[in-house]
Amino acid sequence: MNDGAFDFSAYPHRHLLGIEGLSPVALSLILDRADSFVELNRRHENKLAILSGRTVMNLFFEDSTRTRTSFELAGNRLGADVINMSVSTSSIKKGETVVDTAMTLNAMHPDVLVVRHNDAGAVKLLAEKVNCAVINAGDGRHEHPTQALLDALTIRRRKGKIQGLTVAICGDILHSRVARSNIHLLNAMGARVRLIAPKTLIPANIERLGVEVFYDMQAGLKDCDIVMMLRLQTERMSGSFFPSIREYFHFFGLDYAKLEKAKPDALIMHPGPMNRGVEIASDVADDIGRSAIREQVEMGVAVRMACLEVLCANLALEGA
Predict the structure, then answer these.
(1) Helix extents (H) in 78-203
(2) Mind listing the pLDDT tens digit for each residue in 145-154?
């Protein structure tokens, strides 16, 4: 299973529950391995047998087209048996707790459990109750580690590095697990991180994470290398966080007038799904020369292949 070019022991963890606390060495291992899968995924013959005999279960308590599908593709391309659990028709809808579900799934002896849940900490709780490896595919407002990894891989492939870059993360920071994972990763890899949003969408004391906070797009975008826009997560909002969608776009939506403040070759990113005309103008999102939004989706499969392989390699070292 172990590719001789990669020392999988550089990631000395059973699970991938978040970016916080991971070393630059561990992060670089996943990014390097993911980079080696990119060209494979572009070929017609793109199946490997690296995870032959392994079982990957996708358990999504929240809907997600991109993340679930890319984990499914990643597992299949590595030769694993992939099972998608339908929460809407499972015992979970009948009142079964997360712990009960964990025990049930554990009895089926999967090797990797990929979990998305709407409550922060739920994936960690489940990981404590199972014998297999667990990947956090997003938990509440907490973290979304594989999204940050695919964003980092996109940046590294387009810019050649992460260290020393200035990255602006703009929009609904308050409700975004993507923002949190990216803050941890970018800081660990030596980037400078700026957050730009209305005051109502900035978490209290977020500066403690080593970021600069701006409440004005023009000031925040000045000389940035990367502009990462975030979706307004209205489904997580209770109350009024901004006067109107129209006013939000006027002040915080990315258009070419605001983008002029960033560097001329600044890369445009968005984790998706996009609200065109809300957080980003369509012509900016579709700018072939500067937008990396479609590339982010492509990098997702390669990153998730790397995560699955690294965790299964660790299981093999444990004799599991």
Answers:
(1) 98-106, 122-127, 145-159, 177-188
(2) 999 999 999 9
What gap in Å lies between CA 145 and CA 139, rounded to an integer? 10
Q: State the DSSP H helix or E strand holding residue 56, giving kind and residue range, or none if neither.
A: strand 55-60
Reading phi first (left if > 0) and then psi (alpha if -120 to 50, else beta), residue 164 is in left
What is each CA distance from 243 to 59, 196, 288, in whole angstroms? Answer: 37, 17, 32
DSSP string, 182-230: HHHHHHHTT-EEEEE--GGGS-TTGGGGT-EEES-HHHHHTT-SEEEE-
pLDDT band at 90 (very low <50, low <70, confident <90, very high): low
| Cβ–Cβ under 8 Å, residues 110 and 133 | no
Sign of CA pseudo-dihedral 296, 275, 211, 263 = positive
**Distance between CA atoms of residues 4 and 207, nearest Å:** 41
Reported in sequence order, the residue ranges of 76-118 that DSSP labels E, i.e. its strands, are 81-85, 112-117
Helix axes 24-41, 65-77, angle to 10 degrees: 80
> Residues 106, 144, 81, CA angle at the centre, nearest 5°?
40
Residue 232 Ramachandran class (φ > 0 left, ψ -120 to 50 alpha, else beta)? beta
Q: What is the mean pLDDT of residues 106-115?
A: 94
How far apart are alpha carbons 27 and 150 in whole angstroms?
A: 11
Evaluate whether 227 touches 293 at the Cβ level (below 8 Å).
no
Quote the distance between the C-alpha of residue 229 and its chain's center: 14
Report which of 24, 238, 14 is spatially closest to residue 113, judged by C-alpha positions: 14
